[in-house]
Write a structure and sequence with these properties.
- The chain is of the alpha+beta class.
- The chain has 2 helices and 5 strands.
- α1 runs antiparallel to α2.
Length: 88
């Protein structure tokens, strides 16, 4: 399963990308995450449905100091990812 997701709220400057990368790697989820100029964080998560759902829940509720006020998700055809990276 692969999902493209945008998180809105207090999601920059709180360790969101690094914590998400660590959790993704522990869950065997692949893809990437990056900050956007508009203050949102954008990501692609690819993995088992259970792992992807756990990662989304972690992003929404498990990152200290982050407050996710909205998420926009779109399911996609699976791409080829071999790791989970933070993009600049």
């Amino acid at each position: 399963m692969q999902v493209h997701i945008i998180f809105k709220g207090i999601v920059q400057g709180v360790g969101f990308r690094e914590r998400t990368r660590r959790m993704a790697r522990s869950l065997n989820v692949f893809g990437w995450i990056r900050n956007n100029a508009d203050g949102t964080v954008e990501a692609i998560f690819k993995g088992s449905p259970e792992a992807v759902e756990k990662l989304i829940q972690y992003c929404e509720n498990g990152i200290p100091d982050a407050i996710v006020t909205e998420k926009i998700m779109e399911y996609q055809e699976e791409g080829n990812f071999e790791d989970f990276k933070i993009l600049k």
